[in-house]
Amino acid sequence: MAEKTSRFPGFYKLTLAERVSKIADWADLSVEEAAVLNGGGLQPQQADMMIENALGTFELPLGAACNFLINGKDYIIPMAVEEPSVLAAVSNAARKIRAGGGFQTESTDPVMIGQIQVLDVPDMETAVAAITSHKAELLQTANECDPVIVKFGGGARDIYGRPLPHTPIGPMLIVHLHFDCRDAMGANAINTALERLAPRIAEITGGRTSLRILSNLADQRTAAARAVVPADKLATGDLSGTEVARRIEEANAFAVADPYRAATHNKGIMNGIDAVVIATGNDWRGIEAGARSYAGRNGRYTALTDWHVNENGDLSGEITLPMAVGMVGGATKVHPTAKTALKILGVKTATELGEVIAAVGLAQNLAAINALATVGIQRGHMRLHARQVAMAAGASNNQVQRIADLLVQEKNVNIARAKELIAIS
Ligand code: NAD
Predict the structure, then answer these.
(1) How many domains does the chain have?
(2) Which of 70, 167, 235, 418 is least enclosed by beta carbons within 10 angstroms?
């Protein structure tokens, strides 16, 4: 059988039903799984079991990004996002990266950090030494909390004390537990282990324990993606590929040096990352918290990506960020759309999922700075945004595309004009 390709030229021109049918074929979805994409997703009764005070569900558009070639394997990427142009932009960037051989990714082991706050420590040095000398016992206690994770090859990896000498209320000791969570995001395993460890930590340090909670600055659990875009793939009508590559390097340098720009540069990255994290039922607040704190970890908020012109004159890019995503637990195995999204992705482990997400972040970033450094972001965006403007102005389903086309033609994409056009149509 021929290798599956995620190159679907003209995918955007298909009808919704045709797209679902194509993806269902591609991912071998069952009739039930395909039905999930067509309004059969999370039901109010399921929502009622998931959160308190449930009223119903909240829908977002789910799209498929094409053209992703990651470590030689093709992926279709399900993305849940309300913002127009995210899917088109990322698919377009992935196509350019594909021309350079696709993405190469790697990651650390899925090791999360848990923290125990210890106050009123009589002697900091002795307390830190006590944790080190009791390490084997403490790691064993942590492992006893989650035999399933241990069975799958995960479990406690390290425990140590980190004195914080200067806080607003004086010194305190923070104990860090490193725990390999395998295919789980791991919050529950970590928090359970921390609660079990706390009384013993109090005993051996002579202090008083308070907070016991995982850290979202998951810098021991990172995913990285790299890509090279051949310069000629970046050429526009007016600019050579070499010139565009240089401009992209300049755009990245701006974000590396300036937090005002880095905030928006990273926001563009998270347009892609959050959309996959949400589609797969993962905790996007955790991923956001991890990415943002990682971007500021050296004391100054900076860009999560690096782009530069390489020795061949092509464009090289990379991204590294914390990636606390799971494929078991949380909503991943409960939300019907998340289950279908994971099937479409075809990832086997949480680590593979994290690497795919890093690749999406890199491609989304390339799309944004490529546009910003050349024609600007509004030209492509406004064409797609016009449909949302037409809908907001009250256009019926039949009118939306026509009103949007008129707005674009007139180069006047705003609600007031859309309302006038609806009134006279
Ligand atoms: P979970 O507890 O529902 O499931 C994970 C468990 O599944 C593991 O502990 C393990 O016992 C079992 N398991 C089965 N197969 C496994 C495999 N192959 N690999 C690893 N474990 C396997 O889920 P979770 O990941 O602990 O919790 C995630 C949820 O916790 C998220 O929804 C998040 O919203 C929430 N949460 C987040 C924070 C935070 O980010 N600060 C804090 C608290 C809770």
Answers:
(1) 3
(2) 167
Q: Could you say which of 83, 195, 243, 306 is catalytic?
A: 83
Is there a catalytic annotation at residue 283?
A: yes
Q: How far is the CA of 182 from the centre of ligand 1 (A)?
A: 10
Mean pLDDT by 10 residues, the chain (425 residues): 79 94 96 91 94 96 97 98 95 97 98 98 98 98 97 98 97 98 96 98 98 98 98 94 97 98 98 98 97 97 98 97 94 91 97 98 98 82 83 92 91 91 90
Bridge partner residues of 78 (DSSP): 64
Other Cβ atoms within 10 Å of 260 Cβ, number? 10
- Is any ligand 1 atom within 6 A of the Cβ of residue 272? no
d(CA 94, CA 38): 26
Q: How far apart are CA 7 and CA 74, in angstroms?
A: 9
Give residue 394's domain range: 380-424
The answer to whether residue 275 is domain-embedded is: yes
- Cβ–ligand 1 contact at 148 (below 6 Å): yes
Query: 73 CA to middle of ligand 1, Å?
Result: 28
| Domain co-membership, 268 together with 371 | yes
pLDDT score recorded for residue 332 = 85
CATH of the domain at 41: 3.90.770.10
pLDDT of residue 425: 84
Q: Are residues 202 and 139 in the same domain?
A: yes
Task: Choose which residue among 283, 293, 325 to substitute to test ligand 1 binding: the one with the highest number of ligand atoms within 8 A of its C-beta.
Answer: 283
The rounded Å distance from CA 90 to ligand 1 centre is 29
* 332 within domain boundaries: yes
DSSP string across 202-255: HHHHTSEEEEEEEES--TTSEEEEEEEE-GGGG--SSS-HHHHHHHHHHHHHHH
Residues 6 or more apart whose CB falls under 8 angstroms from that of 133 comprise none
For residues 187, 193, 198 and 201, what is the CA-based torsion angle, rounded to 10 degrees?
-120
What pLDDT is recorded for position 1?
44
Ligand 1 mean position to 402 CA, how many Å?
A: 47
